[in-house]
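Support case: uridine-diphosphate-N-acetylglucosamine complex. Customer-provided input:
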Amino acid sequence: MKKTVLVSGGAGFIGSHVTVELIQAGYDVVVADNFSNCDRTCFEGVKRITGKEDIPLEVMDFCDMEAVKALFQKYPIDAVIHFAAYKAVGESVAQPLKYYKNNLTSFLNVLEAAQEKGSFVLFSSSATVYGEPDSVPVTEATPRKPATSPYGNTKTICEDILRDTVKASEGKLKGILLRYFNPIGAHPSALIGELPRGVPNNLVPFITQTAIGKRECLSIFGNDYPTPDGTCLRDYIDIVDLAKAHVFAVSRMVEGKMKQDCEVFNVGTGRPVSVLELVNAFEKVNGVKLNYKFAPRRAGDVTAIWADPTLANTEMGWKATRTVEETLKAAWAWEKHLAGK
Ligand code: UD1
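Agent response - structure generated as follows:
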């Protein structure tokens, strides 16, 4: 019997890549999205990549409990992956209520419906929960730090909500928290990728938009950090590798392979890369010259964080496989695809 996975926020950057991998792994997928922060480009791309024209799409808001209940009644949902959330760090500082209201309400609604239905829950958490870690790489046992933004705080709070709810359910509700490091890149088909609205906050979309001529100059925020080249270190994880981690996590849940009722895994490569190294790699692998300058540090940035992915490697059997170069090639191909080049 095919299992059905609901992907909330399934038309967005991570959601669309996860939908592709789930369909290709043989799952039935229901995509639900309110298109508040994306258009239909990626959903159409998912259909083309998978050759599946009839992927169920529900246009709805997860803050609407009646709609969430109706959704869980309409489909036989074995597991739900929850992506539907606001994600701009700076905006969350300016508008905390918008973030707390949306990101917490939608997750509470999903949890309540999943608990009633007996569906597994996978929550998209973030390395942001580790803050500025005392030592790197970080394992799942590394203590969390107070969040530096309301966005980050919603991740920490949702982790706690899932944990508490699972505990109180006495085995009826089970879930997995995946802590993503820095997802970058695009599908190798160049049919889906990141589509930021307005000026990108994240590094790689800013790089590709500068390379294509949409932005004049990339600012590298800070070159006086205590790192080998003075720029920040991150764990950049290929979006397709990241998406595949979800397939491993879902099969772990629905095939009864979980060892605890609430499990947590880092989803990273274990490889630190500096901002400058990433910029240089982009130029080299794509044969383009990038206009960049050094600028002051950005408020809230941590100096260095990367994953120890051993637990995901050994327990889930998942491992990141793509090189930074392959990923940056895919990111560039996607930007060119968007520009019609
Ligand atoms: C941020 C969020 C993280 C979220 C992730 C999504 C925090 C502290 N960080 O991570 O929770 O999951 O985005 O991908 O909440 N940089 C530049 N110039 C730019 C843009 C970025 O130099 O124009 C640098 C940054 O200073 C940083 C690195 O590039 O050192 C990566 O930045 P970014 O892509 O924004 O990701 P994070 O801040 O690590």
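The mean pLDDT is 97.

Case will auto-close in a few days if no follow-up is received.
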